[in-house]
Amino acid sequence: MKSVNHSVDEVVVALTDGAKEDAHAVFGVLRTAFACDRAPDDVPKDVVERRPTVWLATFDASHPGRKPGPARLTAPLTATLQGGYSAVDSMRRTLASVFTVHDVGTAFGDQEEEIQVLLESR
Fewer Cβ close by (within 10 Å): the C or N end of the chain? Predict the structure, then answer.
């Protein structure tokens, strides 16, 4: 059986509990600083069903790019970041440079961690 190995520089970001415009703003901030598996014109969409919506994107934190500019959220948004320790830390610092970041929870593994944060506009 073949195992799937993800790079320790890869971070999966899941956004929940917010509007699609806020998800787009957060992904835009992260896309400024890191390569992403989604194109800039790939805008999050609402789901018609009455289930919670989760927007996902994968970022490569190995070569940070430009410093993101300011961004606003219409309401707090929950973000879950999963990946290698330094990559997740780099991504959290980038988010904290634009938004107020409240730590909600953390899970540690051998080579990866998962953190959950609440993002708010400054």
Answer: N
**What confidence score (pLDDT) does residue 87 get?**
96
- List C-alpha distances in Å: 48 to 18, 25, 52, 95: 15, 21, 10, 29
Model pLDDT for residues 46-56, shown as the tens digit of each residue: 666 666 788 89
Q: Would the pLDDT of 116 be above 80?
A: yes
Pair 29, 68: CB distance under 8 Å: yes
Sign, CA dihedral 25-26-31-36, equals: negative
Q: Exposed/middle/buried for 17, CB within 10 Å: 0-12, 13-18, 19+?
A: middle
Is the pLDDT assigned to residue 5 strictly greater than 70?
no
Contact 72, 9 (CB under 8 A): no
- Tell me the pLDDT of the chain averaged across its residues: 88
Across 1-122, the runs of DSSP E, i.e. the strands, are 10-16, 35-36, 55-60, 77-84, 100-108, 112-120
